[in-house]
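Hello again,

I reread your note about wanting to compare the complex against the isolated chains. To keep things tidy I'm splitting this into two emails, and this first one only covers the full assembly. Below are the input lines as submitted, including protein chains and any nucleic acid or small-molecule components. They are followed by the predicted structure of everything together. The single-chain runs will come separately.
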Amino acid sequence: MEKYAIYVPRLVTRRENFAPGHRACIGCGEALAVRLACKALGQNIIIANATGCMEIVSSPLPNTTWRVPWIHTLFENTAAVASGIEAGLKVLARKGRILDLDTKVVAIAGDGGTSDIGLQAISGAFERGHNFVYICFDNEAYMNTGIQRSSATPYGAFTTTSPPGKKSIGQVTWKKDMPAIAVAHNIPYVATACHSYPFDLMAKVDKAMATHGPAYVHILSVCPTGWRSPVDLTIKMGRLAVETGVFPLYEVEYGKYRLSVDLPKLRPVTDYLKLQGRFRHLSEDLMNEIQQRTNTEYAKLKEKVG
Amino acid sequence: MVKKVGIEVSVAVADAAKLANVDVIAAYPITPQTHIVEHLAQIVADGELDAAYIPVESEHSVMSACCGASATGARTFTATAGQGLELMHEVMYVASAMQLPIVMAVANRALSAPLSVWGDHSDAMAVRDTGWIQIFVENGQEAVDNVLCAFRIAEDQRVLLPVMIHLDGFYLSHVIEPVGFPEQSEVDQFIPPYQYPLPLNPDKPVTMGAFAPPFIYSEAKKVQDVNLRASKEVIMECWKEFGNRFKRHYSPVESYRSEGTKVLLLTMGSFGETAMTAIDKMRGEGKKVGLLKLRLWRPFPFAEIRQAVKGAEVLIVLDRSLSYGGPGGPVCSEIRSALYQQEKKPQVISFIGGLGGRDITPAGFEEIITRGIEISQTGSDQEFELFGVRE
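Full-complex prediction:
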């Protein structure tokens, strides 16, 4: 196993299709996740990028971070743009106007662009069965506009539009289960990943690429700026999210669930929550509530795994 | 040219897209456009056209999918109307600014509320600043001809802009008219194969849609404006070539019996035909009135409008949409501003009519002209008159 750990990193390409020199914040988990995903995606791809942090940090005219073809149009329509690209490539190849290179279309977006404003377009693209990969880089709020809550923001978290106060605990709703929504579309492949598990992340993106039909990968991306967490703890934070059961890693192939990291015993959620300023205001009771909910959800997931 | 056939205009528009051998069609149903995409679905299902037909889940996604498809170098077509065009609105700015030569037929329709599926130009006017080329047609033949021209114009390397062909909902979309179709070989010669200069292609990665900081945004917008204005030459060149090949002639502003007349009526779209009947009758009665039909709405044909109204004393403009609390009709206010600096110019009288499918008969046009002349003599304290409205 030790040898394997030395050997595997050498298999990873040194080529950076998400080139250095972008403008992401220090300690940005999303930039790391995108970089890792790009290593697995390779070069025979076209990326459609939703509006958000990743578009802004990577594409200020006249510069670009992208060494693969990349298109940004708007916020909520990335899955629809990807649908059009996929359809265009397919018909042009069929008509012999371009070489049939089996180029994969990859839609990327944040949690707002995915689980809020872009949900309809994603649902449409999944339902129509386009051959594409959709990757959600989930940093659990609208970070690009300055930390506003999304439906992916966790319960109790501070954001600028879910501020805790005398009459509020912060975010009052539980995180929307976007992977479950993807699974409900009966698409061939759904997975969760985190940049703190780089080989697992790349393996899942690989699988998504090899899937024929829609594939969805939901990547938890730690955001020190928005989470009010130390910039040097990005990797640790991702590991804690997984080890506490707050963000379990799993994949769903043709409806069949498999845990990627099976934990016999979960760490207490406080290990994760207490490192982040966005949960600083939480009372003991609220932390207990989050612990209960995490246990329940993890048990439900294990039941699905069977 | 084969002989004319009686055909529903929507079906004819779909057949024109087929003749143009489109690669990708993104479609979402909306009255009164639906027959166009229905017929295209059948054409593709029957194997008569090798195209990807994407039945998208909203018009917003229609235009988004069109952008994606067009960026790969695929010839892309869609159709919409009214609320559908409004839902596409923000994506339309992207299509033009990113120079994606999409062709879209618009069966002009009123906007909610109150809900109205019937025709007027509210939708077309709401998208006039999206940077698209906008061409209005008057009958089925013009619709077919201009859909064909639209591909040639849009995909011209000097243009690379999306084009809307506006045909009035129901008035045109749902009527059966005699239409002549060119042969496939003639169309193939008329519309060269689509070559997008920098398509999305892994062999030659490009970044499309990068964001513009303030130091470069104005320049990007200037380029867009210059490009759209310059497209007029190409549009006229295309119409000229179409006329040479198919013997039907189009121009940005068209005149009917306007020579030597002091009073002109200006309309857009299908009302032109009814208005011609009214003009004929009035001319028969010795009244010196003529008609102008504005075909090219964007880029706005300033020189042609100024030329067309030379010598006229009264210009009555009939709009089919209303700018609430503003100058009244958008067409009239743009024409007024086009003429404002002219030394000699006609009085411009604004009428609005035909909202939400309200019909205007030849007698109605006569009434508008007569009332327009009256206003030109007596003046009016109103910015415009809403024709036939019950108060």
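For quick reference: Chain A has a mean pLDDT of 96.

B.
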